[in-house]
From TrEMBL:
Pfam families reported in the protein's UniProt record: CT398_CC, Zn_ribbon_9
Native source species: Saccharopolyspora rhizosphaerae
Superkingdom classification of source: Bacteria
Coiled-coil region list: 37-164
Protein name in UniProt: Uncharacterized protein
Residue ranges of domain C4-type zinc ribbon in the record: 202-236
Residue stretches making up the CT398-like coiled coil hairpin domain: 14-192
Keywords in alphabetical order: Coiled coil
Lineage: Bacteria, Bacillati, Actinomycetota, Actinomycetes, Pseudonocardiales
Gene3D superfamilies found in the cross-reference section: 1.10.287.1490
Length: 241
C-alpha cells in the first residue's frame, strides 16, 4: 500500500484523537464520583435504617405511654365513682369495702403515675433520637445529591469533550484515503493501536526496537510506502519521509 508521507503523518493526528476518545471512555468509567455515590447511597440507607429503628422504639414507647394514661384515667374514674358511692351513704360494710378499695386505687394510681413519668422521660429521649435520625437522613441525602450533581457535571464535560473530539476525528477520516483508514482501523481493532511514529529504531506503537534487518527494510522502502512494524503490525510513520 502506498500513501503520501504527509497523509501518513495525519494518521498520527487520528491516533491522538482516538487516544483522547479512549481516555474519555476510561474517565467516564472511573469517575471518583461513581465510587462516592456508592458510599453516599450506603450511608443514606444506613441512616434510614437507623431512623426506622429509632422511630419503631419511639412508637412502641408511645403506645406504652397511652396505655398507662388509659389505666390512670380508669383508676381515677373508679375512684370518683367510689367516692360518690361513699358520699351517698349506705351499709357500714359497703362503706368499709369502698374505703379499702379507695386505698388500693390510690396506691395503684401512684404506681401507674410513677411508671407513666418514667416512660414519658424515656419517650422524650427517644423523640430526640428520632429528630436527630431524621436530620442525619436529610444530611446524608443532601451529600448524595451533591455528589450526584458533581457526577452529572463531570459527565456533561466529558460528553462535550467526546463530541468535539469525535467531530475532529470524522474530519480527519474524511481527509484520509479509505484503504489507509481501513488498514489503520483493522490494526487498531486487533492491537489497540493502529499507528506509531518510528523514532530511531523504535516503533512508537509497541515501543519495541526493530532488529537490523527490519530497520534496513524500512529505510530502503520508498517514502510513500506504508510500512508496518513486524512486532505489532502497526503502521509506522517515518520522520522526514
Amino acid at each position: 500500500m502506498k500513501a503520501d508521507p504527509a497523509v501518513q503523518r495525519r494518521l498520527l493526528d487520528l491516533a491522538d484523537a482516538d487516544a483522547e476518545l479512549n481516555r474519555v471512555v476510561h474517565r467516564r468509567r472511573t469517575l471518583p464520583e461513581l465510587e462516592q455515590i456508592g458510599e453516599a447511597e450506603r450511608e443514606v440507607q444506613t441512616k434510614r435504617d437507623e431512623l426506622v429503628v429509632a422511630q419503631t422504639a419511639f412508637n412502641d414507647l408511645d403506645r406504652e405511654v397511652k396505655r398507662l394514661e388509659t389505666e390512670v384515667d380508669n383508676v381515677r374514674k373508679r375512684e370518683t365513682r367510689d367516692r360518690e358511692l361513699m358520699a351517698a351513704g349506705g351499709p357500714a360494710k359497703q362503706q368499709e369495702e369502698l374505703e379499702h378499695e379507695l386505698q388500693t386505687l390510690e396506691r395503684r394510681q401512684a404506681v401507674l403515675e410513677d411508671e407513666q413519668l418514667e416512660v414519658m422521660e424515656q419517650r422524650e429521649a427517644l423523640e430526640t433520637n428520632v429528630t436527630k435520625s431524621r436530620e442525619a437522613v436529610t444530611e446524608a441525602e443532601q451529600r448524595l445529591a451533591d455528589v450526584q450533581a458533581r457526577r452529572d457535571e463531570a459527565l456533561h464535560e466529558l460528553e462535550v469533550a467526546e463530541t468535539r473530539k469525535q467531530h475532529e476525528r470524522e474530519v480527519l477520516v474524511k481527509a484520509l484515503p479509505d484503504d489507509l483508514v481501513a488498514l489503520y482501523e483493522r490494526v487498531r481493532g486487533q492491537r489497540g493501536v493502529g499507528v506509531g511514529l518510528l523514532q530511531g529504531s523504535r516503533c512508537g506503537a509497541c515501543r519495541i526496537e526493530l532488529d537490523r534487518h527490519a530497520l534496513n527494510e524500512v529505510r530502503e522502502a520508498a517514502p510513500d510506502d506504508v510500512v508496518r512494524c513486524e512486532e505489532c503490525g502497526a503502521i509506522m510513520v517515518r520522520e522526514n519521509k
